[in-house]
Design a protein that fits this description.
Layout: E1 12-13, E2 19-20, E3 34-36, E4 42-45, E5 54-58, E6 64-66, E7 68-77, E8 80-87, E9 92-94
Length: 112
Amino acid sequence: MRRAHALAVIGIVTAAAVAAPVTTAMAAPAEATYNVVPYENVNVRKLPATAGAYLATLTAGKTYQAYCWTHGETVTDHGYTNDIWIGFADGYSSAVYFKGNEYANLPVSAQC
């Protein structure tokens, strides 16, 4: 593990903290999903960038389902820097905010 926290996603929680699936135009492989847990509330965005349209907020400590990871905008926060974004059915969240390694414990082979 390169760092204590990484990005990973399993589902989306709305700003009201109600669990809801994340759906976007992103193609999600049906055969593989991965559980991820944010260590603080994190936004899900349409694109793997902070300027991407806001879709929802994932609640810290809850488990969500992610499909893949991709390279995107580099994010630095809490002493970590990473350009890995976790892919959900509808959008992406920076791996900087997830527990695990730099890929939020998704396998390296799970690239979008």
